[in-house]
Design goal:
Layout: H1 2-21, H2 25-31, E1 36-43, H3 45-48, E2 51-52, H4 66-72, E3 85-90, E4 99-103, E5 114-115, H5 118-129, E6 133-139, H6 161-170, H7 174-184, H8 187-201, H9 203-206, E7 216-224, H10 227-230, H11 246-262, E8 270-274, H12 288-297, E9 309-313, H13 320-346, H14 352-364, H15 369-378, H16 390-408
Parallel strand pairs: 1-6, 1-7, 3-6, 7-8, 8-9
Antiparallel strand pairs: 2-5, 3-4
Helix pairs in contact: 1-2, 5-16, 11-12, 13-14
Length: 415
C-alpha cells in the first residue's frame, strides 16, 4: 500500500509538471481557455500619443513615477514588450486607415519613437488581469465630438444663431457649408466602428495565438479627447460661462449609448479621460477649461451610467514646473529664429545640422544648466500634447487601467 501511494504521489507530481510545461494538452488548454479581453481606445491626438521615449528617464527621480518607469522597462533596461497584450491601431500612421499591429510596446503612438496612454494602460491591465488582452485603438488628431465623432443618437449638427451670424459676417456660402457639415458629421465615429468590427471579424490576424474556442469579450472603452471642442468657440459660443459646454455632455452621453448599442454591449465599462492640460490650477481660473472639464465628467454622475461609466481626472498628473520651462522656451523662439537668420547671412555655407546646433545653443543660454537639462529630458512637445512628457502621460495610462479594473468588478459579465 505504501508503494502504491508513493506511485500515486509521483504520478500527481509529474502530471503537475507536465501541465506547467505544456506537455499535456488538456491541462495546458485549460490554462489558455480565458477569453480574449478586448478594450477600445479612442479619441484625438492625445490618444494617438506624442510622448517621445527620450523623456522616460525624467520619471526616475520622482518617487511617484519611478515605480511606473520600472514597469515600463524590462530586465534589460529596454522598453517593455507586453507578452499578453496586442494592439491594432489606426490613425497614427499618417492617414486615417493604415493599421499598425503587434504586441504592445513603444512605437504605438503617433510616431515610431512615441507612445500614448496605450503603453502603460496595456502594461497595467496585463499586470492586473494576467489574461490575453487586445487593444483596438482608433485615434485621429484634430477631431471634435460635435462633428467628427458625432454619433447617430445626437442627430444632425445644429447651427447656433451665434455661428450663423459669424458666418454671415464672413460671407460664407451657407449652402456649401451645410452640405460640407452633413458630409463631415460622424465620419470618424463610423471609421472607429468599422475598424473595431474588422478586427473582431478576424482576431487571429492581429493576435496570432488566438483560438476561436476561447472566444473574446468586449470588456471596456477608454475615451481621451476634447481639445478641438475646447477651441470650437463658434459651436460653444458660451464656453467661458458656467454650463457653456453642456452640449458636450449631451453629445458624450449619446456617444456612450450608441457605442454600446452598435457593438451590442449594453453596459460596457466606459472610462472618460477628462482633459488635464494646464493642471489643477486651471480649475480656479475663469474661462473655458474648467467648464469643459465639468461637462466631460458629467455623464459619469447620471443614474443611467452609475457603476459602468467613470471620469478620470488627468489634471493631477500635470507638471507645472515643466510647463513653466516649456512656456519660457516657446517665448524665445521668435528671437532665436531671428538670430539664426542673421547667422545664416554671415555664414551662407552653414549646414542644416550647424543651423539647428546654433539655435539649440542660443536657447540653452537663457536657462540655468539644471533647468535646461530638465526641459530637454522631460518635454518633447507642446502643452496641448501634455508637453510630450512621459512623466505626465504614463501615470494617466495607468490611471485609466485602474479605473477600468474597478469598473469590471461590478460589470464583469454583460447581459
Amino acid at each position: 500500500m505504501k508503494q502504491t501511494m508513493n506511485n500515486i504521489g509521483q504520478s500527481v507530481k509529474w502530471i503537475m509538471i507536465a501541465g506547467v510545461l505544456g506537455l499535456m494538452p488538456g491541462i495546458a488548454s485549460q490554462a489558455a481557455a480565458k477569453p480574449l479581453e478586448v478594450y477600445i481606445l479612442a479619441g484625438q491626438s492625445n490618444m494617438q500619443g506624442h510622448v517621445n521615449v527620450s523623456t522616460f528617464d525624467s520619471m526616475a527621480g520622482d518617487p511617484k513615477t519611478a515605480p511606473i518607469l520600472k514597469e515600463m522597462r524590462g530586465a534589460d533596461g529596454k522598453p517593455r514588450v507586453c507578452q499578453q497584450v496586442w494592439i491594432s491601431s489606426i490613425g497614427c500612421a499618417g492617414d486615417d486607415t493604415t493599421e499598425q499591429k503587434g504586441k504592445v510596446t513603444t512605437g504605438c503612438g503617433a510616431s515610431p519613437a512615441e507612445i500614448g496612454p496605450e503603453f502603460t494602460f496595456g502594461i497595467f491591465m496585463e499586470k492586473a488581469l494576467n489574461e490575453p488582452i487586445l487593444l483596438i485603438k482608433t485615434s485621429w488628431g484634430g477631431k471634435d465630438l460635435h462633428t467628427a465623432f458625432r454619433s447617430p443618437g445626437a442627430g444632425p449638427y445644429v447651427w447656433s444663431d451665434f455661428e450663423l451670424a459669424r458666418r454671415k459676417e464672413r460671407g460664407d456660402d451657407m449652402a456649401k457649408e451645410r452640405a460640407d457639415k452633413i458630409k463631415a458629421t460622424g465620419v470618424y465615429y463610423r471609421l472607429m466602428l468599422d475598424h473595431v468590427r474588422k478586427v473582431l471579424a478576424d482576431l487571429k490576424r492581429v493576435v496570432p495565438e488566438y483560438d476561436p474556442k476561447q472566444g473574446y469579450e468586449l470588456a471596456g472603452f477608454v475615451w481621451f479627447q476634447g481639445f478641438n471642442d475646447l477651441v470650437s468657440d463658434w459651436t460653444y459660443d458660451k464656453g467661458n460661462q458656467p454650463g457653456g459646454y453642456d452640449l458636450y455632455s449631451e453629445l458624450l452621453c449619446h456617444f456612450i449609448r450608441d457605442v454600446r448599442k452598435d457593438l451590442s454591449v449594453p453596459k460596457m465599462p466606459f472610462v472618460i479621460g477628462v482633459m488635464g492640460i494646464g493642471g489643477v490650477k486651471e480649475d480656479a481660473k475663469p474661462g473655458t477649461m474648467r467648464h469643459l472639464r465639468m461637462a466631460m465628467a458629467a455623464p459619469a454622475a447620471l443614474p443611467e451610467f452609475k457603476g459602468n461609466v467613470v471620469a478620470v481626472q488627468t489634471a493631477p498628473y500635470w507638471d507645472d514646473d515643466l510647463e513653466t520651462l516649456r512656456t519660457r522656451l516657446e517665448a524665445l523662439w521668435p528671437k532665436v529664429d531671428a538670430m539664426a537668420a542673421e547667422e545664416v547671412k554671415k555664414n551662407p555655407k552653414m549646414t542644416g545640422e550647424e543651423f539647428e546646433a546654433f539655435k539649440l545653443k542660443a536657447q540653452a543660454e537663457h536657462f540655468a544648466p539644471d533647468e535646461w537639462k530638465r526641459l530637454q529630458a522631460g518635454a518633447s512637445n507642446g502643452g496641448y500634447h501634455y508637453l510630450g512628457a512621459a512623466k505626465i502621460i504614463a501615470p494617466i495610462g495607468k490611471a485609466f487601467s485602474e479605473a477600468m479594473v474597478k469598473l469590471q468588478k461590478t460589470e464583469r459579465k454583460y447581459p
